[in-house]
Design brief:
It contains 2 helices and 8 strands; from the N terminus they run E-H-E-E-E-E-E-E-H-E. By secondary structure, the protein is of the alpha+beta class. Strands 1, 2, 3, 4, 7 and 8 form a 6-stranded mixed sheet that branches. It has a two-stranded antiparallel sheet with strand order 5-6. The relative contact order is 0.23.
Length: about 130
């Protein structure tokens, strides 16, 4: 049985679509990929964000914009290397607090305030 790639939805969400989904009742879950450590008052690890459906039965991964390589588009999962970068991203999306896991494999669902303003519509510009 052949798969029609035009009909298959990728299991990723861009930053701009992420902001739309969380305002429609989807949840952002921060997952710690590697145990955090502190160096010079900065927490380092590798975190990524899953976007959970309202009933938490399905998820998609937050992805960076596509990167063309040799004529083929490559999609990369968005990861955060510092707690500061992760907090800045969540704040720009409308969150007023962040629950960040520090141990590998742990995950925390973020709570969007009911009165969260819609961001300016531009993608996050935080660079790590």
């Amino acid at each position: 049985m052949a798969i029609d790639l035009q009909k298959e939805a990728p299991n990723v969400v861009t930053t701009q679509f992420f902001q739309k989904l969380i305002r429609e009742g989807f949840h952002a879950e921060v997952v710690c990929k590697s145990t955090a450590f502190k160096k010079a008052n900065v927490w380092y690890a590798e975190w990524f964000i899953r976007i959970l459906s309202p009933d938490k039965s399905a998820f998609r991964m937050l992805a960076s914009t596509t990167i063309p390589t040799d004529g083929i588009e490559e999609i990369r999962f968005r990861t955060f290397k510092t707690a500061n970068g992760l907090i800045s991203f969540l704040h720009a999306a409308g969150y007023n607090s962040a629950d960040i896991p520090f141990n590998e494999g742990d995950a925390r669902i973020q709570v969007l305030p009911a009165d969260a303003a819609d961001p300016s519509g531009s993608e996050d510009t935080v660079v790590e």
